[in-house]
Specification:
Layout: H1 10-34, H2 40-53, E1 58-60, E2 64-66, H3 71-78, H4 80-98, H5 106-128, H6 137-163, H7 165-168, H8 183-216, H9 228-233, H10 235-252, H11 269-276
Antiparallel strand pairs: 1-2
Amino acid sequence: MHIPDGYLGPQTYGTMYAVMVPFWAVAARKVRETLKARQVPMLALGAVFSFVIMMFNVPAPGGSTGHAVGGALIAIVIGPWAASLAISAALVVQALLFGDGGITAIGANCFNMAVIMPFSAYALYKLAAAAASVSHTRRVAAAGIAGYISLNIAAFFTAVEFGIQPAIAHSASNVPLYAPYPLRIAVPAMMIEHLLVFGIIEAVVTGLVVGWLAKNEPSLLGIKTAAEKAAAAAAPRSSRRLWAGLGALILLSPVGLIASGTAWGEWAADEIHSKLGFVPSGF
């Protein structure tokens, strides 16, 4: 979902920067006003968690890869405004230091993964987990649903940004200048892999961690209950499940190395030349 340089025209990436710059200013103000001192380390941990989980690239059919984002979990724990800043920080570091996502596309990538995802996830979680008790499986299910749907909403926005490029930026002979595939190709290509693979990964990670927090650190989820002692007694069993989930992620982390190509819409010039027979001049 990391859009590289050259895939979006200035009409799109300029608009995304124009949206994100004031949004970051508002988010910083809101976080200063609302984030408690004991939650500040969680903001840093959120950025690190998002950075790391986005490195778990998993192969998808067609010689592509993809990854989870962690946006839903971070929003649930520290709120959507703080989550937006944390994920934005991770995306900026990835773009500037690792070349993962373009510099011109930072605004678009942050809009998709650091605004659309955490805010939609937070709203979905609050709606689905309303009045759920600390031990209620509904809270875990709500977190999983929020992770799954929010990742797919973010993927859809990314697909639309790709897909509108041939219509708004092309030569006199209708040759695309930037991302070459129209909406009828971009939307299915992005959505199928996220609906069938990466959304499920996001849901499992989010549900596992929220379930563990609900039993062991309920205050991080805003839960105040007299049953915390009973929850602590269940810690060994829930910890085993958490470690099992983390172990599965560790085993998956090198799987992306066997993929024959990069993520859909993140190709280098030589890759896109092999697919199209030409390289859009905007690249």
